[in-house]
Each structure stands twice: as structure tokens, then as C-alpha cells.
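W.,

You were right to be curious about this one. When I first looked at the sequence I had no strong expectations either way, so I just let the prediction run and decided to look at it fresh. Below is the sequence, 375 residues in total, followed by the output.
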Amino acid sequence: MRIANGRTLLGGLGAALACFGAVSVCSAQETGPAKAEETFQKVCGTCHTPLVALTTRRTRGQWQETIDKMVSLGAKASDEEFAAVVNYLSAQYGPNAESAPAGGRRGGRGGAGAAQAPRPSAALGPDDKHVVDPAAADRGRKVWAAECINCHGTYARGTDDGPNLVRSDLVLHDRYGNEIGPFLKKGHPLQSGSASAGLTTVQIAELAHFIHQRVYDTLRGSPIFQMHDILTGDAQAGAAYFNGEGGCTACHSVTGDFKGIASKYDPPTLLGKFLNPRAGGRGGRGGRGAPPPPGVKQVTLTVTPPSGQPVTGVPVVFDDFDVSIRDASGEYHSWTRTPALKVVKNDPYAAHDALLTKYTDKNMHDVLAFLVTLK
């Protein structure tokens, strides 16, 4: 039992929820969703912005666990207000909710015309990602250092004694400890010798924040990401591969399109460009005629009907049943695919795609070491 401002926060929470289940008993229910949303802003808005607090859908039980955690960390409100928050979150941000308010109103402002932000998707994905609380992750770091670091390493990338958690399916599907918690409650060795089932809900939640922070720190957009020196190859070996086995001179010339290329791009960018010259673009692969990124060549199709002249253009539809293109003048052409319809795909990066299955790690670094000499 926790007492704050003379009120029992946890002990009466169950009774308050029961109260909310009855018709016309709790005032928050009587006044409808607007009042419940206002209560949510009052209770939770002190520490959280709505978009931070509402970045995932959860079941009623999971929202209840979240509220319990907040109470254990010092959240203060009446039993009725906590009950209103649980009901509001369960209704608006539960797994089966149809819609949800975006940011709500503060102090009763922002009526029907208030802007609505996108709400989280029910499926796992970028809109449902675990949003790390840095302060909670710092607290979780202490649990990690005491119980996990010897096996899983400082950055959760594994050691000889434990797996890489950054690549763990369980971790990647976890949201705020909903997968990590049950796993630990079943029993998992801890370096202190303590039972993992003895970890509290708060400790597990903070540990989840720390682990997800390590996952995000592997991404290029992480504030701690640093590109290390990748010029480890042999330039002479790279030149030999470029002029010989790699077949690069069939399309490129060191005195032509590659002249001064190392002055245009830094080594990481240069490596990415020769490994993936599409630069992340779709290259016309069923992209409904969308242009590729600047500097990226477009895939085209040449279609020859059974009777008629061949037509070349950017693919709009290209599948087993239909093919349609838009030619250089912008005119649209469409055919049903038959054995008599000849379709040739003109992919300027086909040779690069083929090399991806042949490159060795040494080949890639040797070619990069050669390319950086072309200044």
C-alpha cells in the first residue's frame, strides 16, 4: 500500500475499477470521454507528453501494470482519477480500439477542431516501436550491470557466454517489458545468483528500456553512432578486381565517369554507392512510375506486341498478368501478358545485383581502397 497526499493509491485501485464498471457510479464515467481525457492529461501530463505516453496499444491488464509502475515511482492522484485513466487508456488505446484522440486537451482547451495526430497501429512496426525513456534506461543500466553484463556484454551484443540481445526476436517484439517480463518470470540465470523471477515489475520495465536503447544505438541515426575507419583493403588488389574479375570496366572508366569520384564522396558513401547504386530507391520495380532518387538510373521495360513496334518506358505495373509502362512522352501503354507478348527488362544495375552474390569481404574493401585513390 502506498500513501500520497493522504490518499490510498494502490489499495483502493481495484475498488475504484469496480466502481467504474457500474453504471453512473463514478463521476468520470458520468461525464464521458472528454472528462476521462482531461483526467488523463492531469494525472499523466505532468511527466509525459501524450505522444510519448501513447506510443503503443496495450491490453487493460498491461495499462494497469503501467499505472502501478507510475504509482511506485511517485505518481499522485485519487483512486477515482487512476480508475478514470485506466478506463480511458483501455478504451482509446487498447488492442481493438477503433480510434483515439491525439493529444487531448490541456486545461479543457482544444475542442472539436483540435488537430489529431496519428495513432499507433495495432501491428508491430515503426508506429508501435518501444519509445525509450532515457531516465528509466539509466536506472535499468544498474540492473544490467548487476545481473546481465557478464553474459550479454556491455552493449547487449553478446559474449561467449550469452547471445546477442540486439538481434533477439523476443527483444524486437517486446514492448515495455511485455515479452521480457514473462521470460524472466519463468526463470533465467542471473550473474548474482538471484532468481530472475524476483525482479520487480519496475526493474523489468527499466531493464526493457535499457535493452531497447541498446537496440536503437546500433542504428545509424543513434546519437552515439560513429563510423569507424573502413579503409582496410589493398588498393592494388582492388584495381586488379575492378579491371578483371569484377568486370567493372564494361560500364565504368577511371578516366571517364569515375574520374575524381573520391573527391565527391567520403569512403562510407562511396562504399554504399558501389554496393547499392540504387541508393535505396525502388529503381522502377513496380513503383507505379515513380522517379528514382537524383542521380539514380531508371529501370525501363521494352514491350513488343505480337503485331506492332516495340515500346520502351518506365514500368507502372509489371507482374505475371499485366504490364503497363509510361513512355518518354508521358503516354500510357498497357497489355495483358501472353506468350506472344515480348517483355525485356532493361536494368542498368543488373551487373551490380549479380556481384552481390560473388563479392567477398576482401573484394569489397579492396575495391573501396582503390576507388578512394581516384581523386
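Here's what jumped out at me. Residues 134-216 form a domain with the Cytochrome Bc1 Complex; Chain D, domain 2 fold (CATH 1.10.760.10). And, maybe more interesting for your project: The chain has 16 helices and seven strands.

Coffee later to discuss?

I.
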